[in-house]
Write a structure and sequence with these properties.
Layout: H1 2-12, H2 20-28, H3 36-46, H4 51-63, H5 78-103
Helix pairs in contact: 1-2
Length: 111
């Protein structure tokens, strides 16, 4: 991912066709040693392509991927996620009430 990011930084800087040396300079500026094989792979895949179009296509593909806990909820979907959220709220309330009781003791840790 760092190689793609460095390639995109070069392209955003006005270099429409970044070379391996350009990517190496960007990565070196933040203390990362560059792997020639990975740089060559990124350059060969992105060379001559419209980066804005690739990003737009990638966003569409990411939107179709499942995310969050809905898949892990065992098919429960929003109902499963809602129950988990309620449990979290109950735990938070319990923790808050315990903290409040500690405050009533009349002294603090750093007093």
């Amino acid at each position: 991912m760092r190689y793609v990011a460095a390639y995109l930084l070069c392209a955003l800087g006005g270099n429409s066709s970044p070379s391996a040396d350009d990517i190496k300079k960007v990565l070196g500026s933040v203390g990362i040693e560059a792997d020639q094989e990975k740089m060559d792979k990124v350059i060969s895949e992105l060379s001559g392509k419209n980066l804005e179009q690739l990003i737009t296509e990638g966003k569409g593909k990411l939107a179709s991927m499942p995310a969050g806990g809905a898949v892990a909820a065992g098919g429960g979907g929003a109902a499963g996620g809602g129950a988990a959220a309620e449990e979290e709220k109950k735990e938070e309330k319990k923790e808050e009430s315990e903290e409040e009781s500690d405050d009533d003791m009349g002294f603090g840790l750093f007093d």
